[in-house]
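re: the backbone from monday

yeah here it is again, tokenized this time
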């Protein structure tokens, strides 16, 4: 099934959108973190204050650095979870 967009489960509670946007109506999305983009946006908020007075070059460098570090941390967390899963279930 091709899905163009769904509403994350957290925001779904407070809105009166059509069931067509309800992630819970699509079994393929049961294990998907639908709030992922909200979490990424929250992490990127650390750029806002620091980047406010930067020039373009500094902003781009700083943004790339922060995003790279966030991706590294995310990969490490995923690897830790997979390693724990293998210790328990494999």
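seq for it, each position gets an aa:
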């Amino acid at each position: 099934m091709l899905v163009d967009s769904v509403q994350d489960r957290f925001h779904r509670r407070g809105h009166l959108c059509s069931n067509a946007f309800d992630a819970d109506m699509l079994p393929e999305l049961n294990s998907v973190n639908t709030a992922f983009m909200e979490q990424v946006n929250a992490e990127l908020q650390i750029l806002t204050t620091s980047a406010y007075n930067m020039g373009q070059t500094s902003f781009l460098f700083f943004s790339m650095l922060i995003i790279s570090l966030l991706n590294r941390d995310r990969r490490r967390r995923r690897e830790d979870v997979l390693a724990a899963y293998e210790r328990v279930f494999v």
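The helical segments are 9-12, 36-44, 46-51, 56-89. Residues 51 and 58 are 8 Å apart (CA to CA).
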